[in-house]
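Reading group handout, session on sequence-to-structure problems. Before we discuss, look at one worked example. The prompt was deliberately terse, the way you'd type it at a terminal:

> structure ATP synthase subunit C lysine N-methyltransferase

The input record follows.
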Amino acid sequence: ELSQVSENAVCPSPGAMSQAPEKDAPQEEGEGGSRRSGWGLLVTAGVGGTLVALYAVATPFITPALRKVCLPFVPATAAQIQNVLKMLENRSGSLVDIGSGDGRIVIAAAKKGFQAVGYELNPWLVWYSRYRAWRDGVHQNTKFYISDLWKVSFSHYRNVVVFGVPQMMPQLEKKLEEELECNARIIACRFPFPCWIPDHTTGEGIDTVWAYDLKHSRACETKSLEITPETES
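And the output record:
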């Protein structure tokens, strides 16, 4: 239909020689338009694919920010990792990192002999953590799960590492106190718990790490008093 409109728009000429170039011109325009349309489709497809990929990558990072309690991903510094490992000296048993991010703490603990587990809401970070653990040769001593920390029970862990924010610490403090055994140690990075008194502290500024032995809390003493008469009987 476009070629017919183009021919009707050309003014008639008396000679055949003058008509030939006029008929050829619309064909050249049509070929050029097809090429431009093809490139346009390719560019559109490329831009669309890029936007979809960016959305898929960015959504897990943005979504936590829309929650009531925001737990953003901020990689642990080398000093923080060393401070955490210092608080784990002479400790044994299983370890969990709540909000494990890219797996740095879990992998470092696994290299020290711990059976270490990380819980992280962002699937991209979990997959990357699994790759890093495999690359560093500790994948057999590590596990990473995509899960919301509020939907997980930490009752069977003896060592807990937390990279939290102030808004979540009071609720998390209550959750851990209800779930953990008295021999558990909780290590908080960047922000301390609001009510617990730390047994050990190391580092400065953002690298400060607080360690809490749950056996020193009043809740554990109460549990022991309640359990002792039943045990004796």
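Points for discussion. First: Residues 79-216 form a domain with the Rossmann fold fold (CATH 3.40.50.150). Second: DSSP finds seven helices and seven strands in the chain.
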